[in-house]
Amino acid sequence: MDFRGRRVTVVGLGIEGVDMVRYLVGRGALVTVSDAKPPERLAERLREIEGLPVALSLGENDPEVIAGADCVFVSQGVPLDLPGIEAARRRGVPVLSMLALFLELCPGPVVGITGSSGKTTTTSLVAEVFRAEGLPHFLGGNIGVGLLQHLAVLHPYTWVVLEVSHTQLQLVWRSPHVAAVLNITPNHLDRFTWDEYRALKANILRYQGPGDWAVLGYDDAEARALAPRVRGRVLFFTLGNELPGDGVLVSRGRAVWQCDGRREALFPLSSVRLRGRHNFQNALAAAAIARACGLSPRAIARAVASFRGVEHRLELVAVIDGVEYYNDSIATTPARTLAGLRCFEQPVVLLLGGREKHLPLEELAQEACRRCRAVVLFGEAAPKLEAALLEAAAALPEERRPPLVRVGGLAEAVEAARSLARPGDAVLLSPACASYDAYDNFEERGRHFRQLVLALVKEGEPSLA
Hints:
This protein is of the alpha/beta class and 465 residues long. It has three domains: 7-96, NAD(P)-binding Rossmann-like Domain (Rossmann fold), CATH 3.40.50; 99-306, UDP-N-acetylmuramoyl-L-alanine:D-glutamate ligase (3-Layer(aba) Sandwich), CATH 3.40.1190; 315-459, Protein-Tyrosine Phosphatase, Chain A, CATH 3.90.190. It is 33% helix and 22% strand. The longest helix has 19 residues, at 442-460.
């Protein structure tokens, strides 16, 4: 595509927006950035494009700035029903995305991994397998790495391993050579209907051909049901000991590769260093994806045994006075929080809160009331969370009901948790809600939690004065 001299509007100045701006300016485009946030909320991103010949339209998404362009690039998460984007489409203006253009231009084979949970861990582990195999690869996508600027250093022999979100799949017209759908569970129902969300996840398979691979979570009914749509070869992964076809299963405590009626041991589940049954699933998924890419069992075993996980995902921040503090800020849904909570055998002081996503809370509330020493609620969703917990607690004897403490923000939540926890307990930030009531993303929330906990560590250090 030739962008020289063309007027291009980039909508949304996040990680993708910065990547697209830099790439397009380098290709001679006349770039305008449109973002609804005011300049003070975009200070960090504006520094990243400082000095580039870019026009700025900030504080609102002016429809004319968008629709008046020759081409529009939309960052993931930006609603496609913005008046300017809809007007651009009516005028016949191309509406594109970072991922769509990258898949069109990437010279090497692409692995794309999506799902409602486990994407980042699985994607990172697949990259570790490539590293263990000693093969050239690039890790990027929704994992926090822009794509277009890296095209110049990619070669036909470079494997590209991408985490892919549902919103990144809205505007694509190509599919990865190896496409994985780990699971599809209710999420983002504040923005999409359930059918819309399911369709977006399935979109990763839509443009595959006979020579491509699809890796599907067999234990998840929605992912498993996608198999008839696959035009290429299907691999499954399961925690069970049987599969109807090829893939990775578990036998006698070991992950096993099953292909054409033969089985080969890959690694013992005991070598997975991450907490929780869901991380066994992630390791099996990574193994199946790696086999689709032709990577060896030896490299898979080495990567699994050395992989320590990703920040904001059951990340142990510190141990203070015998209490473990865990950052699981990635948990933006009740299902994700349930998976994290079930990783702990010791009593838990659970921190819940943020902006709700209109998802069912009953199961989480019942589990929290049964398992937690206390629950601390913060942010916009605190009243709704409290109501769900009170209803669940009513079914328990009064002496078994955990204390519910409602505070304003995360700083107060950490202080409350500190006073409630006892030696041997775990304090778990696993909010079950989005972060947007107070933070730009879950990573910022997780970093703030880490800072608050580390401040407690410093507070407890002896003074040299």
